[in-house]
Design brief:
Largest sheet: 11 strands, mixed
Oligomer: single chain
Strand content: over 45%
Number of helices: 1
Order of helices and strands: EEEEEEEEEEEEHEEEEEEEEEE
Distance between the termini: 35 Å
Shape: globular
Radius of gyration: 18 Å
C-alpha cells in the first residue's frame, strides 16, 4: 500500500486583506502585492510572483501608453474585452477567457484599454523573469483565446516556463501553452459544483491560487470570490494539494519554484 503523502501548507489571503486602489472614476484595483503607491514589506512577492492585480476598468477608459522592462506580464480577461497595443506593433482586443502575454525584456511601451461599452474585469500578473533564460532580452507579445469547454472541469494550461510542467491529472494542454522566461506554470479552471482535483506538489515547489468567481476549498482552507491562497510544498518530497468546488468556481493556479518568502 502506497504511503499517504503529507499535505501541503496553505496560508489564506482573504479578499478583505487586499489593498484597494485610490478611488478614480474609471478604475478599481485590488492589489495582492505592493504596487504603485501601495507598499507593504510583508507583501512584496511570492517567489517569482511579483504582481497580481484584480482590475475593474470602466467603459472607454484604461491604462494609456506606458513603459515596462524586465517583467513577464499576462492578463486574463473575466468580463468585457481588453484592448492591447504596444511599441512592437501588436494590437488586438480580447474577450472573456483569453490571455494576453507580454515579455517586456529590456524595454517596451504598451497600453491596455477598455474600448467597449461594458466594464472590463481582468487579472493582471507580473512574474520576475529569469534574465539568463535562452532568448531573453527582446520584448515579445502573444495571446491565446479559449472557450469555456477548454477550461470546464479541467485545468487549462495557459502558460508554461523554463522548468518542467507538473504531471497532474485532468490537465488540458492541447493548445501549446505560451512560453514564459521563468520557471512557472499557469492554469485556470471553470469547474462545476462537486468538482475535485487531487494534485501532487513536487518537492521545492509552491503555488498561488486565486478564486476569481464562485467558491472553493484548498486543502482545509475555504476561499470565496477574490480570496487567494499561498501553498508551500515540502523540501524533500511531494505534498498533497486538494482542490474542490462544492458550489462551483472559476480559479487560477500559478505553480512555481519554492521560495523562502512567506
Amino acid at each position: 500500500m502506497a504511503a499517504t503523502l503529507p499535505t501541503a501548507a496553505v496560508r489564506l489571503v482573504p479578499a478583505a486583506s487586499l489593498r484597494v486602489s485610490k478611488p478614480t472614476w474609471w478604475l478599481e484595483s485590488r492589489f495582492h502585492f505592493s504596487f504603485a503607491d501601495y507598499w507593504d514589506p510583508a507583501r512584496m512577492q511570492f517567489g517569482a510572483l511579483r504582481v497580481m492585480n484584480d482590475d475593474l476598468v470602466k467603459p472607454r477608459a484604461g491604462f494609456g501608453r506606458h513603459p515596462h522592462r524586465h517583467a513577464e506580464i499576462f492578463s486574463y480577461i473575466l468580463e468585457g474585452s481588453l484592448s492591447h497595443a504596444d511599441s512592437m506593433g501588436s494590437k488586438e482586443s480580447l474577450p472573456r477567457g483569453c490571455v494576453q502575454y507580454m515579455s517586456a525584456g529590456r524595454g517596451v511601451t504598451h497600453s491596455e484599454m477598455n474600448d467597449h461599452d461594458e466594464t472590463c474585469r481582468f487579472i493582471q500578473v507580473w512574474l520576475t523573469p529569469d534574465s539568463k533564460a535562452p532568448g531573453y532580452g527582446s520584448p515579445k507579445y502573444g495571446s491565446s483565446c479559449y472557450t469555456k469547454a477548454d477550461r470546464h472541469n479541467q485545468l487549462l494550461h495557459m502558460l508554461s516556463g523554463t522548468g518542467p510542467s507538473p504531471a497532474w491529472p485532468a490537465v488540458n494542454s492541447s493548445k501549446d501553452p505560451i512560453q514564459l522566461y521563468q520557471d512557472g506554470n499557469v492554469f485556470v479552471s471553470e469547474s462545476d459544483a462537486g468538482s475535485a482535483y487531487e494534485l501532487q506538489l513536487a518537492a521545492r515547489r509552491q503555488a498561488y491560487i486565486l478564486c476569481m468567481e464562485g467558491s472553493m476549498s484548498v486543502n482545509d482552507g475555504q476561499l470565496q470570490a477574490r480570496d487567494a491562497a499561498k501553498v508551500k510544498g515540502g523540501e524533500d518530497g511531494a505534498t498533497l494539494l486538494k482542490l474542490s468546488t462544492a458550489e462551483g468556481a472559476h480559479f487560477m493556479l500559478i505553480e512555481m519554484a519554492k521560495s523562502d518568502d512567506e
